[in-house]
Amino acid sequence: MVKPIVAVNYKAYYPYSFGEHALRIARDAVRVWEETGANIILAPPFTELARVLDVVKGSGVEVYAQHADPVEPGARTGFIPLEALKELGVHGVILNHSEHRLKLADINWLIKKAKKLGLKTLVCADVPETGAAVAVLGPDMVAVEPPELIGTGIPVSKAKPEVITNSVELIRKVNKDVVILTGAGISKGEDVYAAVKLGTLGVLIASAIVKAEKPYDVIKDMALNGFKALQS
Amino acid sequence: MVKPIVAVNYKAYYPYSFGEHALRIARDAVRVWEETGANIILAPPFTELARVLDVVKGSGVEVYAQHADPVEPGARTGFIPLEALKELGVHGVILNHSEHRLKLADINWLIKKAKKLGLKTLVCADVPETGAAVAVLGPDMVAVEPPELIGTGIPVSKAKPEVITNSVELIRKVNKDVVILTGAGISKGEDVYAAVKLGTLGVLIASAIVKAEKPYDVIKDMALNGFKALQS
Amino acid sequence: MVKPIVAVNYKAYYPYSFGEHALRIARDAVRVWEETGANIILAPPFTELARVLDVVKGSGVEVYAQHADPVEPGARTGFIPLEALKELGVHGVILNHSEHRLKLADINWLIKKAKKLGLKTLVCADVPETGAAVAVLGPDMVAVEPPELIGTGIPVSKAKPEVITNSVELIRKVNKDVVILTGAGISKGEDVYAAVKLGTLGVLIASAIVKAEKPYDVIKDMALNGFKALQS
Amino acid sequence: MVKPIVAVNYKAYYPYSFGEHALRIARDAVRVWEETGANIILAPPFTELARVLDVVKGSGVEVYAQHADPVEPGARTGFIPLEALKELGVHGVILNHSEHRLKLADINWLIKKAKKLGLKTLVCADVPETGAAVAVLGPDMVAVEPPELIGTGIPVSKAKPEVITNSVELIRKVNKDVVILTGAGISKGEDVYAAVKLGTLGVLIASAIVKAEKPYDVIKDMALNGFKALQS
C-alpha cells in the first residue's frame, strides 16, 4: 500500500528545534506512526540528530539531516560530510533547501555519494524547472517549494496550485520514479489533502509542526489527510 | 596556578572523529584531566557533541564546537547558530579555523554574541598580523596557525618559531589578556614544551591526537610537557 | 549553413588575458572570422570587455562575459549584474564554469533573465548528467567539461570520448535545440574535428589559444577543422 | 597642505553606474578637481573601469575598483585578481565593503599584495572595532560604515556621531598613519563638514552622487565643505 509522507524540517527555531522540544516532536511522531503507519521523516539540526535517533529507535519514523557539506571526510573543521551522517545512523539527508542552496555540481556529487552510502536524498527546488533539473540527477525525493511562500502559512496548494501541477508534469517527463513532495506554507491536514490530490505523495513542513503547541495533533491530522487523499 | 591548555580539534577524519573512537578520545581526555589537572578542550563534529558531552560530564574537560554559523536562530535550514550550541551545553566554540574561514564582520558578531550567551571563543588566524587583528575583537583565545604547516607533523615551534614570537608580540600590543595558543604541526609533548617556552599557554592539535593509536598517551605527554614548561 | 563554434575563455592568465595581448587575440579572431566565417566567441575578463568589444566591432565575432553575478542591479558593490553586461554591448555570458560554479537556483534565474535582456547563455557542467540538468533550464549552449582534464592539454575527445557521446545522448533526451559544446583539454584543430564528429557543434578553449604564441594560427586551425568535420 | 577626500562608490545602480552616466560623473569629478584640488576617488564597476580611466587621464582624480578577488592570476574564470586592476592602470581598490564582505585572511592577503603591486587600499568595516582590526593590517585607508545607515540618506555623522569618534579613537590606538574616512548616509556638504570635524579626512559616498541629477554640484559642495572643515 502506498503511504503518504510527512517530512518535518526542524530548521533552527529557538527554542523549538532544540533540546527537550526537539525530543517531544520525535515522541509525537512515533505515536502518529504507531497509530497510522504514515511515512514520517524528521530533520532536526546536526546537534540534535543523535538524541532524536535515540527517541525514534525501533519505530518506522526516519531521521534525516537538514544538509550535508559537499566534502570528503578529513581535515575539514566544522563541516559535516555524508560519512558523519551515515556513522550516526541517520536514514537520509535534505539537500539544496531554499535556505541552504547548493551548487549544481555539488548536488549531483552528494546524490551519487549518498546513494553509495545507503542514505536517501530529499532535494529541494524553487520552481518546477529546477525541480525537473534536479530530478534528472536521480534523487529519491524532490520537493518544489516557492521561497516566497515558505513560512507564510499560505499553502502553495491554494495560492499557486499550478506550481505543483507543473512540477509533477515537468518532473515526470525526465524521471518516472522520483517521489514528489509539496512544500511551502503547508500548515493543516487539508493542505496535505490538496497536495496529494494534485499529484504529489506528501509534504515538507517546518514551523506548522515545529512551533505547534501540540505537534502530535498537527502530524496526525496531516498523516490522516494524506491517507484520505490517497484512497479517494 | 596557571595551567597549560591542550585543545583537540577532531576535524572530520573518518572514522576517527566519529562514533566510538570520538568517545574513546573523550574518555582518555577525562583520564588525563583527572591525573594532571591540565585544561583540556575537545572539539568534536556537530553530530558528536551531545555524546561527547555525556562522556566528559562531571569532569573539568571542556567541549567546544568546531564552528558556528553567523546567523540568528530561526528559519535557517542546516545552519548551527550559537544558541544551538548553548542549548546543548557546550562550553565554547572555535571560530575562523583555516579550513573554515569567516568574514571579519562575522567573526566580530560571533565573538560578541558568544560572550552574551556565556560561550568561550577560540579564534584562529593564519599569520601574526591577522592574529593581532582578531585580538582587537576581544575573544578568549587566539591560535595563530600557518596553514602550510597544518597537518604536516612539522611543528611550527621548530619550523617557524618566529611565527609564535611575532604573534605574541603583535597580539600583546593590542590585547593584554587574551590567551594565546600555538597550532600547526604540533605532534609531541616536546612541541608543547617549546610552544609554551615561546610565550603561549598551550596548543591546538588535531591529527596527532585524533588519529593516534593511543590518544591517552599523546594527551598526557602534551599535558605534562605543558606543565613542565610553565614551571621551568 | 551550420557553422562550427570556437569559444575562447580568456580566464585570468597573467599577462596573456589582459592589456595588449587581450586585444591581439581579438584582432586574430576577427581575421579568422573574415577568412572562414566560423562562429567565434571571445570571453575576456570583465575589465577587458569594453576594449575587446571595440576591436571586434563590425565583425561577426561575439563577446561574452566569463560570469555574471546572480543579483539585481542596485547597491551591490563589486558585483556585476547582467544589466551591466547588456549596457556594455556584450552578446552573451558564460555561466557555471568549473572555476566559478553557481547554485542551481541562480543558474536558472540568470538564464531566464539573460533571455529577457537578449543575452545568450553558455552554461558549463562537469559531467553528462549535470549537463542534462542544465539543458532542462533552456540555455542557448551547454558545454560539458570534466574538471580533471581542464588545462591539461589532454583532449576530452581522446581521453574520455564517452563523456561527449553520453552528454549528447542525455542532453538530447531533455532538450532538442540547445547547442552542445565540447571542452577540457582541447588544444588543436584535430581535437575540434573529433569533438564535432562525436556530435557537438564546437569547442570551449582557454590556454591553448590565450597562451599561444600565435593565437591566429590556433583559432584558424580549429575553425577549419570544425568546418571539415561538419561537412564530412 | 592636507586635502579632504571624496570617494565615490558607483555600486551597480542601473542605469546610473554604467555607460554614459558613469562617464559624466567622471567628467564632473575632473572639473571639481580642477576647481578645488580635492582628492577625488571614483570606484566604478569592473566593466566601466577602462572608460572611466580614459576620462580622468591627466587629472588628479583617482580610479579604484570596487573589489578584487583574493586569487592569484591564472585559470580563474570570472574572477578579477589585483594584477588585472594593475594592468588596467587603476590607482587602488576598495576591499570588504559591507555589500561584499571578505574573509579576514583574504583582507590581509589582498592588502599585502596590493602594496607590492603599488595599488592603494581602502578597506571598509561595519563597526569601530572591526575598523581597528582592519587598521592593524596596514591598509592606506579605513572607512567605518554602519550597514544599517548605508543608502538611507541619514548621515552617520548626525545619527551616530559616536561611531565616528569611537572609530578614530580605536583605530589610532593601533595605527597612527592610516587615513580614516566616514561613510553611510552621507548626502550633503554639511555631512562632509561634520565628518571631518569629528576627526576623519573625508567620506565614502554612493547614491547621493551617483544618482544625483547634477553630480557636479554634489561633489563640489562636498569638496568645499571638506576644505572648510580642515581649515577651521
What's the helix and strand layout?
The structure is a homotetramer of 232-residue chains.
Chain A: E1 5-9, H1 19-36, E2 39-43, H2 49-56, E3 62-65, H3 82-88, E4 92-95, H4 104-117, E5 120-125, H5 128-136, E6 141-144, H6 156-159, H7 161-174, E7 179-183, H8 189-197, E8 202-205, H9 207-210, H10 215-231
Parallel strand pairs in A: 1-2, 1-8, 2-3, 3-4, 4-5, 5-6, 6-7, 7-8
Helix pairs in contact in A: 1-2, 1-10, 5-7, 8-10
Task: Explain how this protein is built.
- The structure is a homotetramer of 232-residue chains.
- By secondary structure, chain A is of the alpha/beta class.
- Chain A has a single domain, classed as Aldolase class I (TIM Barrel).
- Helices cover 45% and strands 16% of the residues of chain A.
- Chain A has ten helices and eight strands.
- Chain A has an eight-stranded parallel barrel with strand order 1-2-3-4-5-6-7-8, surrounded by eight helices.
- In chain A, helix 1 (19-36) runs parallel beside helix 10 (215-231) and helix 8 (189-197) runs parallel beside helix 10.
- The longest helix of chain A is centred in the N-terminal third of the chain and has 18 residues, at 19-36.
- Chain A is globular and about 50 Å long.
- The first copy, chain A, starts with a strand and ends with a helix.
- Chain A binds chain B through residues 9, 11-15, 17-19, 45-51, 65-67, 71, 73-81, 83-85, 87-88, 94, 97-100, 150-151, 206-207, and chain B through 9, 11-15, 17-19, 45-51, 65-67, 71, 73-81, 83-85, 87-88, 94, 97-100, 150-151, 206-207.
